[in-house]
Description:
The structure holds three protein chains of three kinds.
Chain A (H helix, E strand, L loop, with lengths): L3 E4 L4 H11 L2 E8 L5 E6 L23 E12 L2 E10 L7 E6 L1 H15 L6 H8 L1 E6 L25 E6 L2 E6 L2 H9 L9 H13 L10 H7 L4 H8 L7 H4 L7 E6 L8 E7 L20 H20 L9 H4 L7 H12 L1
Parallel strand pairs in A: 2-6, 6-7, 7-8
Antiparallel strand pairs in A: 1-9, 2-3, 4-5, 4-11, 8-9, 10-11
Helix pairs in contact in A: 2-3, 6-9, 6-11, 7-9
Chain B lengths: L10 E6 L3 H10 L8 E6 L7 H10 L3 E6 L10 H19 L6 E5 L5 H18 L33 H11 L6 E6 L6 E6 L2 H5 L23 E5 L1 H12 L8 E5 L8 H8 L5 E6 L3 E6 L2 E6 H4 L2 H4 L11 E2 L14 H7 L3 H12 L7 H5 L25 H14 L9 H5 L7 H14 L32
Chain C lengths: L2 E5 L12 H8 L5 E5 L7 H13 L4 E6 L2 H14 L7 E5 L1 H5 L5 H19 L9 E3 L4 E4 L3 H12 L4 E4 L14 E2 L4 E2 H14 L3 E4 L2 E9 L2 E8 L14 H5 L5 E2 L8 E2 L2 E2 L11 E2 L5 H5 L4 H5 L12 E7 L1 E4 L3 E3 L16 E3 H8 L20 E8 L15 H15 L4 E6 L9 H10 L4 E4 L2 E6 L5 E7 L4 E7 L1 E6 L1 E3 L3 H8 L26 E3 L9 H19 L3 E3 L5 E3 L9 H5 L5 E6 L2 E6 L9 H5 L5 E3 L4 H12 L2
Parallel strand pairs in C: 1-2, 1-3, 3-4, 6-7, 6-18, 7-10, 18-29, 20-27, 21-22, 21-27, 22-23
Antiparallel strand pairs in C: 5-30, 8-9, 11-12, 12-17, 13-14, 15-16, 19-28, 24-25, 25-26, 31-34, 32-33
Helix pairs in contact in C: 1-5, 2-3, 5-18, 6-7, 6-15, 11-12, 12-13
Amino acid sequence: MSTIRILASDGLPAFLSFLSQKHQRVLVPVVKSANKRSVIFEPWRAGMPVVLEKATVPPKEAVLPQCETLLTYKKSKNQEDLGDITVSLDDTPEALSTAIFACRPCDARGFRVLDRPFLNGLFPDPYYKARRESLTVFTITCSSGCNTCFCHWVGGGPSSPEGSDVLMTKIEEALMLQAISPAGEALLKDCDLPDGRDIFPRAEAARKAAWASLAPAPDLKQAPQKIAALFGNDDFWQSQTSGCLSCGACTYLCPACYCFNITDEGDGFGVHGGRRLRSWDNCMSSLFTHEASGHNPRMLKTPRMRNRVSHKFSTYPENWGTFSCNGCGRCISNCPVSLDIRAIVLAALDNAG
Amino acid sequence: MPVLNSKELRIVGFLCNWCAYGGADTAGVARAGQPTDLRIIRVPCSGRVDPLFVLKALLEGADGVLVSGCHPRDCHYAAGNFYARRRLEVLKRFLPVLGIDDARFEYAWVSASEGQRWQHVVTSFTKRIHAMGPAPHFDDAKPLLRVADMALTALRPLGTAQNAAVNELKQVIKDKLPELNCVIGWQQGYDGAHATPLFMKTPEDVDKLSWGPFNVMNPAVYLPLFKGKKTGVVVKGCDSRSVVELLQENLIKREDVIIFALPCEGTLDIARVNEKLGRYTRINAVAYDEAGVTITADGKEHRFCMNDFAQGKCYGCATPMAVLADTRLGEPHKVNPVSSVPPELAMLDDMALSERMAFWRGQMERCLRCYACRNACPMCVCRDYCVSDSRNPHWMSQDADINQKLFFQTIHALHLSGRCTGCGECQRACPVGIPILALRQQIARAVAQLFDDYKAGLNPAALPPLLGYEAHEKNIHERDWK
Amino acid sequence: MRIGIFICHCGSNIAGTVDCARVAEISTGFPDVVYATDPVYTCAEPGQAAIEAAIHDHRLDGVVVASCSPRMHEPTFRRTVERAGLNRYLFEMANIREHVSWIGKDRDANTNKAAELVKMAVAKLRNNRPLLAKSFEVNKKVLIVGGGVAGIQAALDCADGGVPVILLERESTIGGKMAKLDKTFPTVDCSACILGPKMVDVAQHPNITLYAYSELEDISGYIGNFTVKIRKRATYVNWEKCTGCGACSEKCPSKKTPDTFNELTGVTTAINIPFPQAIPKKAVISAEHCRQLTKGKCGVCAKICPTGAVVYDMQDDVVTEEVGCIIAATGYDLMDWTVYREYGGGQYPDVITSLQYERLLSTSGPTGGHIRRPSDGLEPKHIVFIQCVGSRDKSVGRPYCSGFCCMYTAKQAVLTKDHLPFSQSYVFYMDIRAPGKLYDEFTRRAVEEYGVEYIRGRVSAVYPDGEGAYVVMGVDTLLGRSVEIKADIVVLAVGIEASRGAAALAEKLRISYDNYGFFMESHVKLKPVETNTAGVFLAGVCQGAKDIPASVAQGSATAAKVLALFARDRLENDPQTAQVDTRRCVGCGKCIRCCPFGALKETTIRGEIKADVIETVCQGCGLCTTTCPQGAVQLSHATDNQILAEVNALCRC
Lengths: 353, 482, 653
């Protein structure tokens, strides 16, 4: 059996402090008060109040920041011939070793979705790789489902260990920590938390109870083929897209969306030089497919919605054998007009079948 | 280049070629000594000075910005400075809500012959900036979080509109349906506490139409997409103002839109409702009464009184019934016409400038640049060609820093000058709850103060104040440079 | 790009307080700069030759000169780079003289500032694009609005130069204010005698088409290609048939029609010809006073007219003309002097305006040239002239000098003595402004030879003395005492303002005007007859107060401008115009609403409404660019990116 530790609620700051010694940053969920309460992952500092709630924004930024500098460039002139310019590049990946504390199983599974395209093939992404390899994921299991969650439709569940290094389950006021990966093992072995093997059965019970609270999941096995078959069915997609505002709330809040854009800023001279930026991009925006020629194959929002749903439930599974949706439901709960991707998938199953 | 030996501050000038630039030349010819801080950008006309240039400079590190053009009536292009005067004055009244001291920005009229006046303007403005010292920056501010007080009194009784003539309206819509492309309204969304847009094409669709406090979305946002197709839209009072504004701006045509209206009794602040509901798996029942809604979730009852859980905008709403409609069914509650400051704006009003800067720092940090605010805005008609994503013009970079994020909000707010109807969709759409509506509300307040209490979206025939001018502005007075 | 930098010493003008060599050295670190130098005089011939040589030797495709104001030498250097084969817009200037060396003494600060200005210029230049002018044909025909002496002179000069002229006059005769004058200063020539022949020339010139009793209805287009709509007001007389015999006027029973030509000093008939030398000499019926037109019965003139020219049901007619340029010569009107309650505010019949007095002096006037009091028809003995009534008086909102009142007052006083040898004239004045040729001599003659008594001071009140005369109470500031003068007639030298309707015309012409309605010239010193709207020129008092010779000179000056313009068959536009990115444009039309020149219009591209710039009309102000939220309209050479580049160069450091 893997290492199991118990963390009492009053031991949390000490444990986070321990993690901070092992990592350059520890991301924890904190509350941002405003007219709408949101929970955001932020680097932990001593004294910071941590909430063990599902975050509004998934911790994807730990490996794929909203915007990162891929490289900086500096141009220098040959003083004998000012037109002769030497360009020097610095493309060292910026990778802080990071621990994510208290993300949810759907978030942890999100890293797995990102890993496949970024780490596989001929050209693994060095920036992603550097961050991913120095990442430790502490996941807290869910005690129940929620109105917009559907992790169990897509291969996950409230206590799915996939993508996690340590799986934590809340038992009354304490947390049971269970090592999942070798890195998790090493960390838990290294820490001075007491052994928690004796409360493991209680954790198991809590996890089962969480599973039991979920409504039965529909069978999505046919989804990839059925959605692919709908490719040319404009009426179908039109009817599913009418309300869409083409904003990026769904994709930017998705733990499994990884599209990006690259832009250069700065002329390369002076103290600032120039920077090549990689920033999140949004397939629901018209500019996403705006080609240099001016042509745009997805000028309308209908094919864009088709693309997003197809990617998650059809083309990604074709390539990697699993959905690129973890059922976290953020795209549903944060959609300004409450569009529901579950309904689209079900309609697709229904329509083609 | 660093600002020289810290002796100078960074002051940017935008001068029209014909008068102010000439005035600066005249001052030079007369050897009229001036402080060396100012750097002048020559533009053809003060009307070319987009207020966003000023904001850009201030956000990028300028300590002061001075715009100067021809005296009113002397414009080389007849009217450029008249437009500039309105836009720059709105900007001046907007800056403080961000936490930027409006004394850091000034505009002055100087003719080509007024070398002495130019010398005086530059000298006194530079002195003023030096007295204030280097401008504080958003990146340096310590984040401040504060929540607006939502204990408000509404201008009219809020309720759940249970007596609204929904069934009669459905019949009217069914009758009109054959001549319409579709009719936009609301239906129940993924559960009873969330509504989603409804596009009615068949009588069966019409039966799904819902009316009540969950109908938060503004359906006007879809109308420009149906340009040229005769489309119906069901509106709340606030939504109708957006329709009026779209008509005013010629973005939709009156003959292409049929407006159906019922009296609105307020809508729920779904964010606060969700917060109170907490995590739940399913809603068992939603029961309405006159004063509020009772939601049973996972077997537990939660009571939401409209007076406590309405959207901030609803408390100050003076248009519960559509201001323009083809079909109006029912009578709205009487509105007590007292002017009120919206809650988020009131909160900012109570802060010092430095606190406001810290506030926006604390809020904007979590912005994801998803642009839900922009896309939910019925007046954001640039849509796919918003300058936020553009390289030409290249107003913004893709950096996720506070300046870029806040700059976008100022672009949106300034582009809404005299156009924003205060529907609040920008703020409601924000997934991370940034109270950005306050910026639009400040612009709307400035516009109302400057232009005879003008409010956008009330009269389709009105000329938007920022697209017009008066040779003698009643409420804009030239600064005294003495 | 390959950019060359030239930091001008301007002798010691710049080098005195700016380390030019250091600025050039710093400039070499700026992006795309491949060459930098600091010549002593860049604008001099060797300096320009050096730029050309550097463009060739260093294969420059962009040049920055840091020197004096671009308002001074930008055109010079644009030509320089053009000679070397560069597009003239791949050039930028940094103003390090007027804006740096001449206004600051701190050499370090100046050097640093100069380098930053160069940095901004480089940043802008890197965003510049070559711009090419478009050429278009010119319609070699001119419209002149206003048939006073300035308009007449312009018309004759243009016509003599072979240009077809359309002369537009609001009244039924040309001649303007000068036709109302009896004599002119300082020679006391008969006004009608010197103006008359010119008016006849207008009527007879084959190149001149005269539209009298007509107004400018609408105008569109741009320099070289204006389309104007002219409203020919109904005269109720067919001018083709009217011979100007005057029989109608003799028999017209409606004899109480106010005589506007005589400045309301008399009455005339409802159908009339304003004065004997009128051009065109055609009758016009005043619709408000004609019995046939007001009551439907009379018809005397129609019966009497030997050619059957009277047409009671005549309607206004709108005609369209195409012209290449326009001269505005709309003159002036007197300000409303009745605001002077202390002078009776128009209540006393014998307190009259100078222009009314002019009519009393004139042989063609209501009294046949005999000076008689309007109240009782008696000859006056004491005549008081009050100057600056509505001039140089801020209390009535008229701060400016009307220019010619001092002179005509002297003339009227002299003429008064000629007419009435036993009369005594008094003139209340503030200063005597007589700067023209023989002007001062003339005013002296009035005093010395004609015994006119000049009193330096303002008049505080005029009131009837109860015995048919008036008391003029004033102050003599030279003697420092108050004076009271008995007057039989008081003549007010009423200040002028732009003629009624000038502001509306300016808006049609899209030119600027000041608070008093006077049209704005392009440059107060150097472009006094041009406006900022290409192809629109100004002549006479419509631009500001001036006397007859100055008006005539301006009339000729505008003709010279027109002839110079029409010497070319094609014109080139300034390519610094707005451009629409039709993909970005959503067709909201905000730019169209704001454009001060009507240079934007709607167009339909693949079924979608878009904005379109009429490049020849666009004056390059950039208001549209500021107005367009999505940045779809960009003003060439002042695009968002060009200005942002300057802002960034300055602030991101």
